[in-house]
Amino acid sequence: MTERLYLFDTTLRDGAQTNGVDFTLADKLVIARMLAELGIDYIEGGYPGANPTDTELFGEDRGIAATFTAFGMTRRPGRSASNDPGLAMLLDAHADAICFVAKSWDYHVRVALETTLEENLASIRDSVQAARARGREVLVDCEHFFDGYKANPDYALACAETAYREGARWVVLCDTNGGTLPNEIERIVAEVTKRVPGDRLGIHAHNDTEHGVANSLAAVRAGVRQIQGTLNGLGERCGNANLMSLIPTLRLKREFADRFDVGVSDAALASLTRVSRKLDEMLNRSPDRHAPYVGPSAFVTKAGIHASAILKDPATYEHVRPETVGNRRDVLVSDQGGRSNVLAELARVGLTVDKDDPRIGGLLDVVKEREAIGYAYESAPASFELLARRMLGTVPDYVEVIKFDVNVEHRINALGQRVTATVAVVKVKVGDDEPLISAAEGIGPVHALDLALRKDLGRYQDYIRSLSLTDYRVRILNGGTEAVTRVLIESTDADTGDTWTTVGVSPNIIDASFQALMDSIVYKLIRSGATA
Ligand SMILES: CC(=O)SCCNC(=O)CCNC(=O)[C@H](O)C(C)(C)COP(=O)(O)OP(=O)(O)OC[C@H]1O[C@@H](n2cnc3c(N)ncnc32)[C@H](O)[C@@H]1OP(=O)(O)O
Ligand SMILES: CC(=O)C(=O)O
User: CB under 6 Å to ligand 1: residues?
Assistant: First the structure.
């Protein structure tokens, strides 16, 4: 028999306090629906009255399939509940629940609220009563609860008990400054459960010591039955407890999975990676590669010893199966790899080679030699595939580059303006045809080269029409006169939407770029099934 553990998402409220995050109304609605589909019990939409977006959000019934919650502070000191415009906005909000933030640290009451301890308790009491009188489910976030408890346990407990006694469904213990450690959380929550039952307690943990998730789990161990968190750990300063880590841990780790039902189905669990990436996309952020469970590297291995065992049974180096959270396993080829990495990557791209084929060892040696001079095949799988195919003799001789030349001219024109013109010329030979010479002007040398190279490839021109360069990254690998440049180029095929990355390395940045460009074109020709 499992016990219900409730999830409360505050991405749209505490997450909106993240530096650099600014949700529109449309964003909030998309995210709220995504959260409801995940099975989140409570969705805190924002703070009506704080800004036009949140006021509009709560201006009508949004039909969110969860307990849609409005956040705001308890009545201001010295005002009555019926004469507080901020509280009135909260009470009028179209929300199923109201979550009050209430002071519970005596120091904060004196310094930030500038009032008496008694008046703060009265404010909690009056605010809960007012919200209940309007038929709302009530939650009280006891701000700075743990710091408050350490400073004055009786007063912190009095705040929590007042909220509970007045009928708040949840009394949420907040680690507002995020500085409390898991052992302290567990000890203090255990004390609180002697006064307020655990099934009426929640935890709201900030991540300032990287313990947001651990603190939430510690609180559950000690008895709380609601966890507050955010998608991708968004939130004030270092963020809140990350629901993208908490949900799989609660669902997949025996200690919690055997004991609790968190209302997230298997299908919803398998959508977590997609949800996490969708949020990043909306925020115009790259996914955190190393995020647990949902990060692009969460199930990626470079190490040869790991790859070898994973190919025998993935469970050897995975704590959960990536599919359960909608992520995927990947084995990369690099100078940390062995034959198993090479075989796995060849299999992934559809090249079947016997594991005892001596060419595998040869290919691995070449990879290690080339990585030692700057190539990075784990970041450029398309270049690795070409290297492998060349060693296996399966790359047709499509195009021979006879020469290329880039000229950057910097001059003052007739109007006295400083102008720069960059022109690239490329001479190639396709089969037995006459050599083709193309010239193009670009905004920089790589752009000009790219345009010239793709201007006329004779019989292959149609294959590369949909190809475009979508990202270009340069890294200088060692400084001074011996500098070596690594160029990574990402290309996209407009017809299929596929993207791939190629690499070039040279002391000369133009030469490195040209290698990566050529790899990209040859890769596209192979993908398109072009023959020599
Ligand atoms: C721990 C947390 O994350 S709590 C949530 C924090 N989130 C936000 O603050 C975001 C939204 N906030 C806002 O838009 C604004 O602060 C508003 C609209 C709420 C209030 O704006 P203003 O009226 O201009 O007040 P301001 O923000 O300067 O200060 C907050 C006031 O509320 C009081 N206050 C703070 N917490 C509480 C509380 N729990 N109960 C009652 N009053 C409180 C403060 O003492 C201060 O009062 P003062 O103006 O008399 O000094
Ligand atoms: C309420 C809240 O966000 C906090 O105490 O951190």
Answer: 14, 17, 47, 50, 73-74, 76, 101-103, 112-113, 123, 143, 176, 236
C-alpha 75 – ligand 1 centre gap (Å):
11
Residue pLDDT, tens place only, 275-323: 999 999 999 998 999 999 999 999 999 999 999 999 999 999 999 999 9
Q: ipTM of the assembly? A: 0.97
* CATH 3.20.20.70 boundaries in the chain: 3-264
Q: From CA 382, how far away is CA 286, in angstroms rounded?
A: 21
The superfamily CATH assigns to domain 399-527 is Alpha-isopropylmalate synthase LeuA, regulatory domain (3.30.160.270)
The verdict on the CB of residue 103 being under 6 Å from ligand 2 is no
Select from 83, 89, 113 the residue to mutate for testing ligand 1; criterion: most ligand atoms less than 8 Å from CB: 113
Q: Which atom of ligand 1 is nearest to the CA of 176?
A: 1
CATH tag, 3-264: 3.20.20.70
pTM of the model: 0.88
Our answer on whether the CB atom of 54 is closer than 6 Å to any ligand 2 atom is: no
Helix orientation angle between 153-165 and 117-133, rounded to the nearest 10 degrees: 20
Distance set, CA 179 to CA 43, 184, 208, 456, 532 (Å):
25, 10, 6, 62, 65
Local structure of 139: helix, strand or coil: strand
